[in-house]
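Deviation from plan, reported transparently: pyridoxal-5'-phosphate complex.
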Amino acid sequence: MLMLNEQTREELWRRLIEVVENYLTKIDTARVAPELDVEKIRGVLAGRDFAEPLGAVESLDFVADAMWRFQVHTGHPRYFGLFCPASTTMGIAADTLVAAFNPQLAAWSHSPFAAEVERHVIRSFGQKFGYDPALTDGVFTSGGSEANHTALLAAMTNEFPEFNEHGMRALTAQPVFYVSSQGHHSFLKAARASGLGTAAVREIPVDGELRMNAGALTERIERDRAEGFKPLMIVATAGTTSSGVIDPIDELAEVAAREGIWFHVDAAWGGGAAFAPELRATLGGIEKADSITFDAHKWLSAPMGAGLFLTRHPEILKRTFGMATSYMPRDAAGLEVVDPFTHSIQWSRRFIGLKVFMSLLVAGWDGYAEAIRHQTAMGDRLRRRLQDSGWEVVNRTPLPVVCFVDRALWEGATAEYLEAVCKSVVASGEAWLSIARVGDDNKPVLRAGVTSYRTNVADVDALVESLNRARIREGGRSARNSSGAA
Ligand SMILES: Cc1ncc(COP(=O)(O)O)c(C=O)c1O
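Because the crystal trials were delayed, the predicted structure below was used instead.
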């Protein structure tokens, strides 16, 4: 039953291709988001008790139907969400190949082609970020969170060689690290998982443009040193999750160099700017980073998960993760190669790099530059169209994430009103956007990111029209409520 017969396989593959092709060509006819009805979903699953085997094609249709009905379609051109793009066609093909060939990226000798593809892509990306490709090292990760965790462990290994063997108890001073108040929560998780604890994360205030305040950073480092803490790592975010803002990378690199602290750039999404020549300058200074997080499953539209950790220190990953095991195949001993497991938190690992490699083979750098340019232009259009309709854009970034409030109504910047507008648009099925909190005072905003390369002018306009309709519905409702209360 695990290897189905040839005739069933043929039917299954044919149907699979139909289902995938149908999804790709008809996705824009679907509601972007489903209604959230947990009972309905559990009802669909309730009869599936595995007692009676199901036909292969039948099972495929069952799942495809449920996925059509019960998920936010992040590949939809009117999904203005959280960096979850439409997958590249080549990425879908690559992930299928990976599932079939199932290469094991623990030992180099098990999957030499896969390991060398990943090395090749890592060096090419290092070069895009301004590293010397010959010195670039790195590893593919499940995503940005694992890459950020890897950065913290690398910084710990670099600063405290005794940490890997003796752990936190061997340290004479508590390490602390610095990230802006707008940084990603994965650093808090990494602090927990590595044993530092979340109190070790210093959230540095931001300036009026939501960028880390370098002066406040320097002061905090001085204070920490005076109080006996050990400053370990500075994180610059290139493209914050809530507002797409880029920290002053060059300035923060200088602080890190002056203070002798590991400098990490979390460019999980915004790193895509390195692939469009006219945006590359926005990442100025990233080449000075000791390490970089970049997610190919964000702006490069690889299917999830395809994260990357890059470093210009060729020895640090091996020092962080390298170990010997008796069951490790030794066939590659003596060759000038790297066993991927010595660079990673993971042991058995999927061939993550293939979807990036094959997407790049077909699109080329120019294809990606064009997609990134297009999305940036759609972000600019969204900003203009919102402002024309009386919405106020509150973030400044060259990247396509737009945060805004409603200046047309007195209550237009309150959390209740913005949430109501957001819910109303999402419930209409016409588009998907979210609420975010920005700044040190956590101001609520509506947030729309152009995250799909398939988003076009008509989709941007449809979002603005949907928002304008929601504003009339919700504005009217709150006016009625306040007159009722009076
Ligand atoms: C700036 C930033 N860093 C890290 C991450 C975490 O990436 P992942 O979701 O791939 O774990 C995200 C996710 O949105 C992000 O926006």
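Residues 82-83, 143-145, 148, 184, 186, 237, 241, 266, 268-269, 295, 307 surround pyridoxal-5'-phosphate (CB under 6 Å). We consider this an acceptable substitute for the interim report.
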